[in-house]
Amino acid sequence: MRKSFHRLAAAIIASVWAVAAAGAQERPIEPPPGETACAIGAFVTETDPAGLNVRSGPGTSFGVVGRLPPVTLSKEIDGLSVMVEVEITASAKGWFRIRNARDNAQLTGATERAMYGGRGWVSGQKLTVKTQSPAGRAQPSEKAAIVLGTEAGLTLDNDALRAVGRLIGCQGKWALVEFGPLPAGDALGQRLDIAPAAQSGLPQGRFRAWLNQICAIQETSCSGF
Amino acid sequence: MPWPDLTIGGRDQPSWIIKPRADARAHLAVVSDQPAATGQPVVKQQRPPPWLARQPLDFAAFGRQLNTALCGHAPIDAKAWLELTETVPWPLQDYVWRAAEIRLGKAAKAALRRRDNRALYEQIEAVRLCRPDGDKLYFQTPKQQFDAYAAVFRRFASPMARTYFMGGMVSLLSLRNESSTLAHHGEGSYDDRLVVLRRIGSTGISTIFPICTEPGAQYSQRAASKPGGGRQDQRYGGVHFNKIDGEDGNKDKIKDLGRLIEGTYHYYEKPGGHVGARAFQTKITQVVERDTDGDGRFTTADPSRIDPKKAGTSMYIHQGGKDSVLEPDTWSAGCQTIPTNRYKTFLATVGKPASLFYVLVNAAR
Q1: 3-class DSSP string for B322-351
Q2: Is residue B146 part of a domain?
Q3: Co-location of A17 and A113 in the same domain
Q4: CA–CA distance, B278 with A129 (Å, rounded to integer)
Q5: Could you tell me if B281 lies within 8 Å of chain A, comparing CB atoms?
Q6: In terms of CA atoms, which chain B residue is nearest residue A152?
Q7: Measured between CB atoms, does B9 come within 8 Å of chain A?
Q8: Are residues B69 and B34 in the same domain?
Q9: What is the ipTM of this complex?
Q10: Any chain A CB within 8 A of the CB of B231?
Q11: Cystine design at B181: which of A1, A75, B91, B217 (Cβ 3.0–4.6 Å)?
């Protein structure tokens, strides 16, 4: 009787552990709850010709206070897509508080387009960042586990990765970015080292990581952050 | 007389440490024109072979023949060798000696130190110690151009880079002409010369592109506006400010622009591209020098100017704004940028190597 009780208890503990472990594996890397302050530069990836709505609060229920122009093709460089640049000061529920939106006239090769330059909130689905960090982490800390890497010495600030990035959250100088899916047959995927933790709980081909050393300059690289 | 300052970089660096040609000619008159003493056998002097005098001069062949001549036991007819170099235009003569200098073996170098070879020794020493010309030069043949820049590459490159180059790998040489970060409204200058070199057997191919190796002040914190109006640094009044980049090198709470120090860098292609095209990045932290006094120049007067760490591997080779307009914008905050209208040709010239060596040399001005 006693033996069977022990077996039953062990089985229950094991199953609870397995369920807990599975649940933990399935949960994606999440942004911190509530509104968090941050100070990073980002780029607007909206391609709708109508532009991206800037709202008065973090959600579609808030009113539109302005618009940002969509991605445009450069007249300076053939085939280069140029994005509007914004400063991000806070995030909440996948939305980001922005300010000082501006066109990059150097890259567009045209006069700056008129746009809303005040404060407001935009969806992170239409924002991306460029990082010069060599690694993405599971938490916004240099001590956290590395979940995204590339070849030793190289950094993650390449066009291909930036093009498939979406902003999920931010905290201080860190940005939580979801990438993917990479275009089929893209050689970049083979040169990335993506840990299972970065992909857990996400659709096939997507992965998330916290990134720092955010470079807000599109046309060149940054050495100071 | 104080010893010349050989510190890397800086506008104060002397272009010529030894006066080569004036001394050489004077000395030649003393050594070579003396009549042979009567009764003594006339020793046949080593003269350049007649075929070498064919125009235009083959720099590499000149170097090889001079090496052979110096290794022989007969004295050198220095005058004949000097006259041969004078068959090429004056600005190119420096490169004739550079092509010779890198081809001299130990025996030849020892022979050069003999008293009767002093005229040649001074020429060789001058090019060994002095920086090459960074201006546009008009070589008489493509081979002269290759020999000239290959000589500079072999003189300044690391042993590993030299081995790659001699093995036929594509190699890059940049000759940097010092310019102010404040020039052209802080948008940088394509005033440096990038030479893509590929050795093929005893000859090779060289292709020249404009490049910018120094940052523009448009990325300087000093050019940014201050709360009360005006610039943070009044010297930056004419700069078209863009964004702030750089690191505080001297702990004065102002971010200072940096440029790569001269040397050899091993670049790899960045996966995924950068600024709309292929680009190149090193895998080892790059050392930069910073304009910590904000005068727009990178000189030894900048306190705490050497930054061995903070730039990381951020000094890429990538495309910049086109140079076919009146005021080109180089987009360089320290990167090595090539005009976008020439970038496709550059990439085609480079090909798709697994990696390539880039040698950056501060040119004489």
Answers
A1: CCCCCCCCCCCCCCEEEEHHHHHHHHHHHC
A2: no
A3: no
A4: 19
A5: yes
A6: B283
A7: no
A8: yes
A9: 0.85
A10: no
A11: B217
Q: Which residue of A has its CA nearest to B246?
A: A224
- Domain presence at residue A225: no
For chain A, say whether B312 makes contact (Cβ under 8 Å): yes
Chain B neighbors of A187, CB-CB under 8 A? 271
- Per-residue pLDDT at B191: 96
Question: In this structure, what are the phi and psi dihedrals at residue A20, rounded to the nearest 5 degrees?
Answer: -65, -45
List the single residue in A with minimal CA-CA distance to B329.
A106
Q: Do B314 and A217 touch (CB under 8 A)?
A: no
Q: Domain range spanning residue A13? A: 1-28
Cα B61 → chain centroid:
22
pLDDT (tens place) for every residue of chain A, 225 residues total:
566 666 766 666 655 555 555 555 578 999 999 999 999 999 999 999 999 999 999 999 999 999 999 999 998 888 899 999 999 999 999 999 999 999 998 899 889 999 999 999 999 999 999 999 999 999 999 999 999 999 888 999 999 999 999 999 999 999 999 998 988 877 888 889 999 999 999 999 999 999 999 999 999 999 877
Decide the pairing of beta strands B355-362 and B171-176. Answer: parallel
Half-sphere exposure at residue B331, Cβ-oriented, CA atoms within 13 angstroms? 26
Query: Is A8 in the same domain as A69?
Result: no
Record the tokens describing residue A105, joined without a space. 């006239």
Contact B273 A159 (CB under 8 A): yes
